[in-house]
Amino acid sequence: MRHVYGWLLLLPGFILIVAFTHYPTVTTFINSFFSNQTVLKPKRFIGLDNYEYMLHDPIFMQTLKNTLYFSLTTVPLSIMIALAMAIFVQEKIKARSIVRLAYFTPTILPMVAVANIWLFFYAPEIGLINQVLHYFGFNEYNFLGDRDLVLGSTIVMTVWKEAGFFMIFYLAALQGIPKELYEAAKIEGSSPWTTFTKVTFPLLMPTTFFVMINALINSFKMIDHLFILTKGGPDNASNLLLYYIYDVAFSFFDYSYAATLTMVLLTILIIISLIQFGLIEKKIHYK
Amino acid sequence: MLKLIKKVAIYSVIAASLLTSANADKTKLTMYYPVSVGGPLTKIVDSMVYDFEKQNPDIDVKAIYAGNYNDARIKSLAALKAGEPAQLAVMFSIDVYDLIEQNAIVSFSDLAKSQEDKKWLKSFYPALMENGTTLGKVWGIPFQRSTIVMYYNKDAFKKAGLDPNKPPKNWDEMVSMGKKLTNDKQWGLMIPSTGYPYWMFGALAKQNGEVLMNGEGTKTYFNNPKVIEALQYWKDLSSKYKIMPEGTIEWGTLRKNFLSGKTAMMWHSTGNLTAVKKNATFDFGVAMLPAKEMRGTPTGGGNFYIFKNTTAKQKEASLKLIKFMTSPENSAKWSIGTGYIGISKAAYETPALKKYVEEFPPAKVARDQLDFATAELSTYQTGRVRKILDDSIQAVLTDKKSAKDALNDAQNQANRLLRDYK
Amino acid sequence: MKLLQKIATYLLALIWILPLFYTFWAAFHSEKYSANFDIFAPLSIQSFYDAWNQAPFLHYLINTFTLVTIILIGQMILCTLAAYAFAKFDFYGKSVAFFLVLMQLMIMPENLILENYKTISYLNLVDTTWGMAIPYIASAFGIFLLRQTFKTIPTELDEAAKMEGCSQLGILFRVYIPLSKSTYLAYALVSVSYHWNNFLWPLIIANSNNVKPLTVGLAIFAAPESGVQWSTISAATLISVAPLLLAFLIFQKQFVNSFLHTGIK
């Protein structure tokens, strides 16, 4: 009886989760072994052809590289700044709540709006940053039109948007650190920096780890800004994997190749999760 | 709780059925359309649709603005695949091969049966029919059509000691004048290289005496020496002659650059004309693009298409709507409101457009340029072929590849994609 | 050191708020000043008027509101039930089911846009609010969060309720939900802000203006191709973010506190 009751309670949610997570994962996997179906050509089994095409697809290679670079820079940078922010607003300073508000506000803006705003900053000649550079007699930059700058520019913008969100987690964690530890450190005469490295930072490790994993998983679906800022250009220099999947699926209508690309994305996500589980097993028992 | 939900559900079903039955005898049309230049274009479309509905109370049109050309294509094709009803759309003139391959559209040659309809099909400027005609049939009716024109700042010309009524006629003049116009605060020229780089490139190639593809949409000529030369010239404008900024130039913000005096000349769609006219605080001119071996520009913009999955009654209504939207009067209204080309000779003979062109001569530059126009890049697998060329152009402009390597690679990739279509 | 930290604190705050200030500047001045700074430039609300008239922002606003509400209500119901099952019942396959649910934390619906789009179109839900909402209604995060909270509630309390003749669902409604209020609040805030700002999935599903949420409407309205003026885009941006921004300013304390107390850590 309890078995039935338990399943009945679970079922509505469970069905939806299976329908939009597990079922599509399986069909993606299957479709990646078939050719694309068009009106003229029916779909047929082609084995690993899609995967082979992928390995020779320069755009895929570029977007994969960009995606990893994007994730592995935005996440640590955001986390570092978030930690600094949390420590800053822990202090008793003037206008503390306003400062905290300033840090947090970008988080509640949609990425589309953020991209719109930053477009005004990055635009050459008429953009804000270039106007300031020009005013002080520096060289101007074509942030979104230069292949060496464009990815970095989107990273800076993303860090700006995300840091405040992670700050909240650190704020929560900092409150959990016993005051006595700090007092003890003070009595021993340790400098603020030593206190940070020896007391605060180690105690924040679980939070850092938790935020890091979730931020990483989240970062692989951050492509909203590309729709506004660069469309992935110039020449794919700012293109990301999910945006390429969107392009292949919805502008080229190549569903089976899009499925193949999606498999790469899923593999990366699964690897990250495995790392998470592995670390939990090994040493982190906080959760 | 459950009772309440039940009640709500019942009432909403009743309400829905009442609503639909009230409209049951109307022919319903859903139309997607794109906008890719400035100005309140959606307002103009809405007002035209409104007028049409007033004249035809038995037809109900739902016009959906879907974003840029790419978005409009994605939306309408996705809707079709999902079994959503859409009867007609304004889409890129170059989407025609994809639409035929997807078996999504019907040809107007098959729909136009009466003598009058056949005459109507012949009433448009022939250059505008090129992209919509293939396999011996007409598939697209021109609507928001353009050519690339050169906007230039007459005040800046005067300041640089140039004659404001003599814009550059050829490539060399454009460079020499561009050098005079370039200074600490202003560039000589900007050609946009995001959004639609292949389109701008089509102009440069044509001016150098070459086109980008064959008429069947099965072969590209990306690595033809003349085409490579054209891309080299584009690159030289910034790296060698220094009259244009390095890197890519944004299609969307270029108009603002021009209007705030950051560049003395810009190449852009004539569809921007009215927006430039409204916002310019200086005296500006509009000229045909300069020549190398000849003048040249691709046509551009959107055609009307009718989808296959449409009842006979809806087809008839769609045709009616398209005829209305492309009538000389409406074409004139559209041209004045936006800067797009009036699509037929008759449009330029309407009193409204006649008067407008007289008062504002730049309004006819794009049309006159039709004499030198060629079709816009359009092949099977258009989306992908286009992306290949776009990426290659950007790779050259951002210093990743030489013009020759980039276009050789592009040609190879295009060959691979088009292999099956020959 | 102290001084340095202070400078850094305020400088960072300034950088973090500057873009928003700029948006206000551009929105409240005419286009002429949007890339041109002059403290004495005349203020104007023309841009808001233009934006409001050029696109149906009221419609978008209502659509977003409906979308967020449907998702929230759905999540509250489904996640509560599932979390209750996981927290208080033993049933066959429970740990496997829990593992499968948690998989959604790493593979989110956005990662599978193509297949999920096919499902939605198979269900005939393209261009509907339900189509945008349904993949998110069962949220692993919500289930996990509520399960953790429910587990902290001592079993003596449900024994007592049982004595008084409460059914299983009665216990859920009388004991568990009231005692988890702060978790619900925190989760609601997270969910609302996430879905208010969500873009990619609604972009794929929504076509008509009767369905498009603010983010999609804003993106299409402000796309660089359309060459809308910056001041107008800024005004449109502010219109889109204003409701959430205001709500945040009002509920700031609750927002941060609920995070701090519910143990999202």
Automatic annotation (TrEMBL), chain A:
Belongs to the binding-protein-dependent transport system permease family. Its main location: membrane. The keyword Membrane applies. This is Binding-protein-dependent transport systems inner membrane component. It is a multi-pass membrane protein. The lineage of its organism: Bacteria, Pseudomonadati, Campylobacterota, Epsilonproteobacteria, Campylobacterales. One of its GO terms (cellular component) is plasma membrane. It comes from the Bacteria. Keywords: Cell membrane, Membrane, Transmembrane, Transmembrane helix, Transport. The chain crosses the membrane at residues 7-26, 68-89, 101-123, 149-174, 195-217, 257-280. It comes from Arcobacter nitrofigilis (strain ATCC 33309 / DSM 7299 / CCUG 15893 / LMG 7604 / NCTC 12251 / CI).
TrEMBL record, chain B:
InterPro entries: Bact_solute-bd_prot1, SBP. GO terms for cellular component: periplasmic space. The keyword Manganese does not apply. Residues 1-24 form the signal peptide. Its main location: periplasm. Keywords: Coiled coil, Signal. It holds the Pfam family SBP_bac_8. Residues 393-420 form a coiled coil. The keyword Coiled coil applies. It is found in: Periplasm. Gene3D superfamilies: Periplasmic binding protein-like II (3.40.190.10). Belongs to the bacterial solute-binding protein 1 family. This is Extracellular solute-binding protein family 1. It comes from Arcobacter nitrofigilis (strain ATCC 33309 / DSM 7299 / CCUG 15893 / LMG 7604 / NCTC 12251 / CI) (Campylobacter nitrofigilis). The lineage of its organism: Bacteria, Pseudomonadati, Campylobacterota, Epsilonproteobacteria, Campylobacterales.
Automatic annotation (TrEMBL), chain C:
GO terms for cellular component: plasma membrane. It is a multi-pass membrane protein. The chain crosses the membrane at residues 7-28, 57-84, 91-108, 128-146, 184-208, 228-251. GO terms for biological process: transmembrane transport. It holds the Pfam family BPD_transp_1. It comes from the Bacteria. It is found in: Cell membrane. The keyword Transport applies. Keywords: Cell membrane, Membrane, Transmembrane, Transmembrane helix, Transport. Residues 61-251 form the ABC transmembrane type-1 domain. InterPro entries: MetI-like, MetI-like_sf. PANTHER family: ABC TRANSPORTER PERMEASE PROTEIN MG189-RELATED-RELATED, LACTOSE TRANSPORT SYSTEM PERMEASE PROTEIN LACG. Belongs to the binding-protein-dependent transport system permease family. This is Binding-protein-dependent transport systems inner membrane component. It comes from Arcobacter nitrofigilis (strain ATCC 33309 / DSM 7299 / CCUG 15893 / LMG 7604 / NCTC 12251 / CI). The lineage of its organism: Bacteria, Pseudomonadati, Campylobacterota, Epsilonproteobacteria, Campylobacterales.
